[in-house]
Description:
With 184 residues, this protein is α/β, with parallel strands linked by helices. Helices cover 24% and strands 25% of the residues.
Amino acid sequence: MRIIAGTRRGKALVAPEGKSTRPTADRVRQALFDMLLHAPWGGRDCLEGARVLDGFAGTGALGLEALSRGAAFCTFFEVDRPALATLRANVNACRMGDVSRIHGFSVLKPPRTDAPCTLVFLDPPYGQSLPAQALSALRGAGWIAPGALVVTETGRDETCPVENVEILSDRAHGAAKLWVWRAD
């Protein structure tokens, strides 16, 4: 696993042993960021200078990729202890500690913020209906900017992770499915 593009291109990332963390594969991240940059609803503006939230961060690959490609800041949420240690190691190895913050608690119970994010990644464990819960908690605590792009990864056979949104894209990649929409 590595950073695909940008200032940290080629930087290797580590993942914790075992199956408690399921990092987004390099090819899926590549497809996602290509889509963000080239879709009619995306473009460089959705990444460059963005405030990013990487919920259920695991290794931090999504947030670190965004930072490498020009995002201004990323907030990571992770509760699993081995994943949290790996996340910290990856942020340090990429030398991105000054443009990120790691919360070692659940994205389902975030603290209040006055710095809402314009790009939100949610890659929770599959099949547990966590995206809708996380979005509700994040909205209530001020983490999601109006019009923010929200990207959620689910299992390939799962239905849309939230209701009453206009899906901009939904694409399957192997066992994963990516969903993208704008926050109200």
